[in-house]
Design brief:
alpha/beta; 6 helices; 6 strands; 16% strand
Length: 200
Amino acid sequence: MTPTCGLAGASPAHSAYGPRPAVEAAAERLRAAGHRVWTPDLFDGWTTGSVEEGMAKRDEIGKDELLRRAILAAAPYSERGLVYAGFSLGASVAQTLALGDEKARGLLLLHGTSDLAPNASVEELPVQLHVAEPDPFETDDWLSAWYLQMRRAGADVEIHRYRGAGHLYTDPELPDWDEEAAGRTWSVALAFLEDLEDGA
């Protein structure tokens, strides 16, 4: 998901599982904390309970088309200065959008990251990542390289790891669900968004 949150608005993007109930539940959690939130649907309502089917759907649509859909969803609000957010696949989409939007106010990544364009550059963009430890999709070596690349690009990055949690541990309807890790994640993430509002 590619969410955008914050004082002006946030929009979380869904994972490869599609726009499942957990996405809207996350949006409601953020709205209850006073944020404006939009939840783009990159899969046209399609959902699955299988990561393999989700990845096949991602490949069927294609990376360029997913980005196009995400850009169109964010465009009506981007002038306000968005906080981009996303879950797993949606986190990679959110990262790409935030690094390409000079008005972006922050980036909240849950369960995922993406590679960076060689010329990626931002001005102290606040970034917060929450990821399982270990995570088969976000290995230690990858995260170390990603962190250094983000720092070189100018981002202000913090990483939070959750030992023993499954990859998509914030979705209570998936086997990865970890109630304690999810609770800690949302507590830290909401504080991050509040700090962004205070600095606006």
